[in-house]
Amino acid sequence: GQNIDQPTEMTATEGAIVQINCTYQTSGFNGLFWYQQHAGEAPTFLSYNVLDGLEEKGRFSSFLSRSKGYSYLLLKELQMKDSASYLCAVRGSYGQNFVFGPGTRLSVLP
Amino acid sequence: DTAVSQTPKYLVTQMGNDKSIKCEQNLGHDTMYWYKQDSKKFLKIMFSYNNKELIINETVPNRFSPKSPDKAHLNLHINSLELGDSAVYFCASSWSSDTQYFGPGTRLTVL
User: Fold this and answer.
1) pLDDT of residue A93
2) Taking a C-beta distance cutoff of 8 angstroms, is the pair A85, A105 a contact?
3) How far apart are the CA of B42 and the nearest CA of chain A, in angstroms?
4) pLDDT-based confidence at A60, cuts 50/70/90?
5) Residue A72: which pLDDT band, with cuts at 50, 70 and 90?
6) What residues 39-98 of chain A have any CB closer than 8 A to a CB of chain B?
7) Long-range contacts, A93-96 (Cβ 8 Å, 24+)
8) How far apart are alpha carbons B105 and B110 in whole angstroms?
9) Can you give chain A as a three-state secondary structure string?
């Protein structure tokens, strides 16, 4: 079966650092994606991991441990505009099959 | 210069009607998708097409029928609409199984 877990909601303060976790149990694995989705808008791509380790992209970093079925998205120097839902998605082993997690709604407070 | 576009943006209709949603991408991608996002914001894949051929067809009622006239278009036709079909439908495209780019979504409300 396919199961992806994320915390439902998180709150953080402007300028702080926040870590959003994602755990997965899927029948196959061929990469993990993080997307950002503002209310009423489409998801937009943030980062991608297929090998273990940390990928850094400006204020955003994503980490993957395949043996633990675990990833996190790290957001630094939080800004108000970072208030959004963050979706973790696993690509299955047979190509175009993607399973999305329930999303974590992040609220950034002044 | 819109990358992935969908029409209409909003669709309000009565139960039992048939409706279509259109999607077009100008990114030159070979794979297109339809997703449903329900009121709990769960994004679930419905269909995936690669080079106009159906690759993935998740457990979706056969009232939903995708059609891909060419690699740049993937339309979704829904027959006999039900209340539970109310959701936001997103089209997306990618090069093979790479990063997906999503359209703006179509908010469907069935009354």
Assistant:
1) 76
2) yes
3) 5
4) very high
5) very high
6) 41-45, 48, 85, 87, 89, 91, 95-98
7) A93/A27, A93/A28, A93/A29, A93/A30, A94/A28, A95/A30, A95/B50, A95/B55, A95/B96, A95/B97, A96/B31, A96/B33, A96/B48, A96/B50, A96/B55, A96/B56, A96/B94, A96/B96, A96/B97
8) 16
9) CCEEECCCEEEEECCCCEEEEEEEECCCCCCEEEEEECCCCCCEEEEEECCCEEEEECCEEEEEECCCCEEEEEECCCCHHHCEEEEEEEECCCCCCEEECCCEEEEEEC
CB B48 within 8 A of CB B55: yes
Tokens of residue B47, six digits: 């269909």
Residues 43-72, chain B, touching A (beta carbon < 8 A): 43-45, 48, 50, 55-56
CB A7 within 8 A of CB A65: no
Tell me how far apart the alpha carbons of residues A65 and A69 are, in angstroms, rounded to a whole number. 6
Gap between the Cα atoms of B35 and B47, Å rounded:
7
What confidence score (pLDDT) does residue A62 get?
Answer: 97
